[in-house]
Specification:
Helices cover 39% and strands 21% of the residues. The chain has helices spanning 46-61, 74-83, 90-97, 100-114, 119-129, 135-146, 150-165, 231-240, 261-276, 290-299, 310-315, 333-336, and strands at 10-19, 31-40, 68-73, 173-175, 189-194, 203-209, 224-230, 254-256, 281-283, 304-307, 317-322, 328-332. The strands form two sheets. The protein has a seven-stranded mixed beta sheet. The protein has a five-stranded mixed beta sheet with strand order 9-8-10-11-12.
Length: 341
C-alpha cells in the first residue's frame, strides 16, 4: 500500500495475533501471537545474516541457548526436484519431505511413489535426506549429489556465505537439507527454529526469502526476507524450563504508604521524582491501617515501601523498607531519588 512512500531497504517488525484452522493441542492454537521481522527492497544476503543474529540474540536473552537455527535453500530443493522428477514435481517433493520428522523416511518414500516418482528418483531423494555430519560435511555431500546442477550451485553458494559468517558459532546454526517448509512463496534461504531437544515442541520460529511475494498483490520486483517468532510456543517452552525470572511479576518497585493528607501530598511529589528516573512507583490510594498497606505490597510483590508519617514529614526524611529482608533505613527526601531501587 505504501511502497511509493517508503525508503528501501525497509525494515520492520510487529507483534500481532494470527489465526488458523487447526485442531487445538499443546503448541498449536487457533489464535496465537506471532512476532515478525522483515526486510524488503534488498537482495543482499547481509539481511539474512542480520536476521540470524536477531534469532541468536533473542534466544540467548531468553535463556533458550539450546535452540537450533536450521537453514536450507529453496534452490537446493528446486535442484533436487529437477534431478529427480522435474521442476513441476517441486511442490510434491517438498510437501513429502516436510513430513519427514512426523512420518519417517519409509513413509516419505511411499508418499513420493504415490505422487508419481519412480524408484530411481526416490533413491536420489533418499540419498539427499541421508546427508549428515557437520555443516562442512553436509555441504561437501550435497555438492557431490547436486553440485553439477546450476540451480543447486547458486543455492549452495548462498548457504555457504551465511554459514561462513557464523562458523565460530556452529552449535546454534545448523544446515539442514531436510528443511523444506511447505509454503511455496519462498525463493531463497529458509529458516526454522527447533526448541531445545529435551522439550517436546514443534518449531518455535521460521521464515525465509520471498522475492516474488509482493507481485501477488500487484507490486512486482520488491524482494523480501523475513523471520517470525511463535510467541505462545516460546512462552510454553520457557514455562516448562522454568526460565521466567522470579521478579517477572513485579510491576511496581516502590510503594509509598498513605498516612494522611499532608503526608500523602509529599509522598506523591517524591513518587513523581522516582517515576521520572524510570522507577515504577505508586501511592496507596487511601489512608488505612499499616498492615493492610503492607499486605497490598506483599500480594503485588512490591520490593520496597516508603513510609512518610508526621515525624518524617517534620524531619524531611522517610523510612525505606526492603520487604525481602526487613531492613529499614532513614533517607532524606533529597536523597531518595538517588537510591538504587
Amino acid at each position: 500500500m505504501n511502497h511509493n512512500q517508503l525508503t528501501f531497504p525497509f525494515k520492520r517488525y510487529q507483534i500481532q495475533p494470527v489465526w488458523r484452522a487447526d485442531r487445538p493441542q499443546r503448541g498449536r492454537y487457533r489464535e496465537f501471537y506471532q512476532c515478525d521481522a522483515d526486510v524488503v527492497g534488498s537482495n543482499a544476503l547481509l539481511n539474512e545474516v542480520e536476521l540470524v543474529s536477531i534469532y541468536q540474540e533473542v534466544f540467548s536473552q531468553l535463556g533458550l541457548k539450546d535452540c537450533t537455527i536450521k537453514i536450507n535453500h529453496r534452490k537446493i530443493l528446486a535442484a533436487l526436484a529437477e534431478i529427480s522428477g522435474g521442476a513441476n514435481k517441486m511442490m510434491d517433493i517438498t510437501i513429502a519431505i516436510d513430513k519427514l520428522d512426523k512420518i519417517g523416511l519409509e513413509k516419505v518414500k511411499e508418499e513420493l511413489l504415490t505422487r508419481g516418482l519412480n524408484d530411481e528418483q526416490v533413491t536420489i531423494i533418499e540419498k539427499y535426506l541421508s546427508i549428515s555430519g557437520s555443516n562442512d560435511e553436509k555441504i561437501a555431500q550435497v555438492k557431490i549429489l547436486l553440485g553439477e546442477n546450476s540451480t543447486a550451485k547458486k543455492g549452495i553458494e548462498e548457504l555457504e556465505y551465511i554459514y561462513s559468517q557464523f562458523a565460530t558459532n556452529e552449535s546454534t546454526l545448523s544446515i539442514d537439507f531436510t528443511l523444506a517448509r511447505g509454503l511455496n512463496y519462498y525463493t531463497g534461504i529458509i529458516f526454522e527454529i527447533a526448541a531445545p531437544p529435551f522439550v517436546k515442541m514443534g518449531s518455535i520460529g521460521g521464515g525465509g526469502r520471498y522475492d516474488n511475494l509482493t507481485g501477488l498483490f500487484g507490486v512486482p520486483d520488491i524482494p523480501g526476507v523475513g523471520i517470525s517468532f511463535g510467541v505462545d510456543r516460546i512462552y510454553d517452552v520457557m514455562e516448562e524450563l522454568n526460565l521466567f525470572p522470579a521478579d517477572i511479576h513485579i510491576s511496581t518497585q516502590v510503594l509509598f504508604f498513605n498516612l494522611g493528607i499532608e503526608e500523602s501530598k509529599k509522598a506523591f511529589e517524591l513518587m513523581q521524582q522516582l517515576r521520572k528516573k524510570g522507577i515504577s512507583s505508586e501511592l496507596y490510594h487511601e489512608n488505612i491501617k499499616f498492615d493492610k498497606q503492607f499486605k497490598y505490597a506483599e500480594k503485588k510483590n512490591i520490593p520496597y515501601v516508603v513510609i512518610i508519617g508526621e515525624k518524617e514529614l517534620k524531619e524531611g526524611s522517610c523510612s525505606v523498607k526492603t520487604l525481602s529482608t526487613g531492613k529499614q533505613e532513614t533517607i532524606l527526601f533529597d536523597n531518595l531519588s538517588s537510591l538504587n531501587f
